[in-house]
Amino acid sequence: MRYSNVAIPLGCVWSSPFARWQGSLAEVSSIDLAVTVTARALVDRRVDPVEINGLVLGWTVPQPEIFYGAPTVAARLGAAGVSGPMVSQACATSVASLNVAAGTVMSGGGAQLVVATDRTSNGPTLSYPAPSRQGGAPEIENWVLDNFDLDPWAGNSMIFAGEAVAKEAGISRSELDELTALRWEQYSDALAGDRAFQRRYMVPIEISKKKGETLILEADEGVRPKERESIAALRPVLAEGLHTYAAQTHPADGCAGAVVTTLDHARELSGGEGVVRLLGAGFARVAKSRMPMAPVPAALSALKSADKVIGDLAAVTTHNPFAVNDLYFSAQTGITVDSMNVYGCSLIFGHPQGPTGLRSIAELVETLRERGGGIGLFTGCAAGDTGAALVLEVTD
């Protein structure tokens, strides 16, 4: 998909901190979190909700009252006359949501607010009535755990896909550990100067709880050091595998968002700070149980749509739930692993599904801002052996 006249005002893509699974946000509705974080983000960026013409809500884990999700979020933000679609595409939800918003902008739909939010903690257990079964026993599905554990089409778990690609690509355990440790060191750079880099895009969480208490979360929760010596001593998750728990991401809870509009409107909203032009997106699907390969064809598709090549890129971020993802991507594209994700990635800060990509896109934008602008690429894999990618340009 190629975009024309679509942009984000510079500074108007954000993310909350990510909280560890079953941590501080475990009992906070992702809808409530979306409203709280988005409201503060808009105030801080001086964007009046009345300037928003539509809302795209991305989510993957059902929450109470999600049936009314998009119009409810809009109304609670002060845009009662606004609604829009809800998008769910597993880990590709962020790019898919931006793609919907960009298409609406290009068709004359006005400024769109993209909100991606998920709580993997305490995911619902669904009961599907089945009167014809023995004793009328219902079919039961744990939305998060069962789907993490098995791709019904491929017949395997996600970790199996990571191991299959590592084996076929000839990647060693030591390479996986080295990549993991590198990503930890890069994430540590984002914490320097009292988290100066993260504060450029991160919106603190301040949300009321029961009994008059207030939950405040200003930084990522549950991130563990991944240093070479300690992770080398870990056992693989699968008996014959290579990936340890350090070499894969952890489920998390969080929210992210962006304002998508026309180029002129983006310049107006940015107050002269510049814009993020959306140039093109790409989606791809690869063979069964080969999910870590999908970011490559997705990225190449996005670059082709944007009429760009790898040599044009000034920065790259990825969603890499397994360490093998970036190693495979580097081998196929020639982009060195140390030039990607220079401030960390989902392998380190966690994966709340829907908002994960938007956070990495926010980091991509801020990395390019530090470098004076340029072309950037985000790419990542998603459940179902799929991938999604976005090419953008930070400019004046």
Q: Supply the CATH class.
A: Alpha Beta
Helical run tally = 13
CATH fold-type name: Peroxisomal Thiolase, Chain A, domain 1
Q: What is the CA-based Rg, rounded?
A: 20 Å
CATH H level: which superfamily?
Answer: Thiolase/Chalcone synthase
What is the beta-strand fraction? Answer: 15-25%
| Strands, count | 15
Layout of helices and strands, plus pairs?
Layout: E1 7-9, E2 13-15, E3 19-20, H1 30-44, E4 54-58, H2 69-76, E5 86-87, H3 93-106, E6 112-119, E7 125-128, E8 139-142, H4 143-149, H5 158-169, H6 173-190, H7 192-195, E9 205-208, E10 214-217, H8 228-232, E11 252-260, H9 263-270, E12 275-285, H10 295-305, E13 313-319, H11 323-333, H12 346-349, H13 356-370, E14 374-382, E15 386-395
Parallel strand pairs: 4-5, 4-6, 13-14
Antiparallel strand pairs: 1-12, 2-11, 3-11, 6-11, 7-8, 9-10, 12-15, 14-15
Task: Please give a structural write-up.
- With 396 residues, the protein is an alpha+beta fold.
- 33% of the residues lie in helices and 21% in strands.
- Strands 2, 3, 4, 5, 6 and 11 form a 6-stranded mixed sheet that branches. The chain has a 5-stranded mixed sheet with strand order 1-12-15-14-13.
- The two termini are 23 Å apart.
